[in-house]
Amino acid sequence: MILIAGLGLAAILLAVASLLTGPTRFGSTEFADIIAGSGDPMLRAVLIELRLPRALIGLMVGAMLGLGGAVLQGYLRNPLAEPSVLGTSNAAALGAVIALYFGIAQAHPLALPLLAIGGAMLGLAPLTLLAGRAESPLSLILAGIAVGTLAGAGISLALNLAPNPFAAMEIMSWLMGSIEDRSFTHVWLALPCITVGAALLMWNSRALDALTLGEDAAQTLGVDLKRLQLRILAGIAIGVGGAVAVSGAIGFVGLIVPHLLRPFGDRSPSALLLPSALGGAALLSAADIAVRLIPAETELRLGVVTAILGVPVFLYHLLRERRLW
Q1: Domains of the chain, residue spans
Q2: In terms of C-beta density within 10 A (0-12 exposed, 13-18 middle, 19 or more buried), how is residue 129 classed?
Q3: Which three-class secondary structure state does DSSP give residue 228?
Q4: Residue 18 CB: number of other CB atoms within 10 A?
Q5: CA within 13 Å, CB half, 138
Q6: Is 296 helix (H, G, I), strand (E, B) or coil?
């Protein structure tokens, strides 16, 4: 409970810091006036219409990625598992790339995120078919690799056949991930997907604990492995698809957050789910603040920063904790 409270407080404080980070400065009086519903209209527009959606999306996307990583590491019993291992991130990215490649994204601002969500959901069908009737997590990993590889090939093909360098640059920019220039339209689009996906994943907490005893023991305890697999697949596809739809491809959050938090709990999968969601929200919010503070001619992409910050921490933690998984 102390860990959950601390992570929740950290996420809230980082979200507030995100609201205050940027070229436009807010004093405490101005900030209080805007919260009260008054204040300068220009400053209010910057805070409410530009920064608040960005902060909310950072919290939601980070929480979904952190939760997805914790669930998959528990279900697959693989410390390197994260949402991309099932190909969901690549399938969602392919949907977005299709919207950019064919110019559908210019027709309506919701076209790109909707196609990204559609890509994630379509990736669920071949994943289920390739996994077949097998209940072993290994079959799911192999099916996810196949789906992810196919989606990655589609993305590479789009880059290779891009009609002009500007189209290729736009695709690459989206693939690097960012939550810059997001609006409440994106918040309301992602929120239902992330809420449904998170609910499906949290539903499996006790079943994940039972799986630590082995699949046969879990079935003896009443766990329906096929239903469990379908709930996890649907939760990852819907939740991560909605997150990727509004943020672009952001990696590493779902991989490193459960590893960082596991030593502070009892190491059971169920005890790690909520802390991982809160930790993911805090980590992505901190990374989004960092991209605005790092001096550069153009704002760095969020996916690049999470990888740069995450790899050294993950390697250090892996060397220190390698015997405790």
Answers
A1: 2-321
A2: exposed
A3: helix
A4: 23
A5: 2
A6: coil
Q: Say what the pLDDT of residue 4 is.
A: 93
Alpha helix locations (H) across the chain? 2-20, 28-35, 41-44, 52-76, 88-101, 104-107, 111-131, 137-160, 165-175, 184-202, 205-211, 215-220, 225-247, 253-261, 269-293, 302-321
Residue 182: which residues within 8 A CB-CB, separation 6 or more?
53, 54, 57, 246
The answer to whether 263 touches 3, Cβ cutoff 8 Å, is: no
Mean pLDDT per 10-residue section of the chain, whose length is 325 residues: 93 93 77 74 84 94 94 84 81 87 80 84 78 66 85 89 79 84 89 93 89 84 84 88 86 86 83 94 93 81 82 73 53
pLDDT at 9: 97
State the Cα–Cα distance between residues 183 and 176, nearest whole angstrom. Answer: 19
pLDDT in tens, 19-28: 988 888 777 7
Global confidence as pTM = 0.87
The Cα–Cα gap between 215 and 222 comes to: 11
**What burial class does residue 151 get, using C-beta atoms within 10 Å of its C-beta: 0-12 exposed, 13-18 middle, 19+ buried?**
buried
Interatomic CA distance for residues 270 and 223, integer angstroms:
15
Length of the chain: 325
Identify residue 25 by its one-letter amino acid code.
R
What is the assigned CATH class of domain 2-321?
A: mainly alpha
Give 162's contacts (C-beta < 8 A, 6+ positions apart). Answer: 101, 168, 171
Using CB atoms within 10 Å of the CB of residue 142, give its burial: 0 to 12 exposed, 13 to 18 middle, 19+ buried. Answer: middle
CB 198, CB 235: distance < 8 Å: yes
Q: Which region holds residue 27: left if phi is over 0, alpha if psi is between -120 and 50, else beta? A: beta
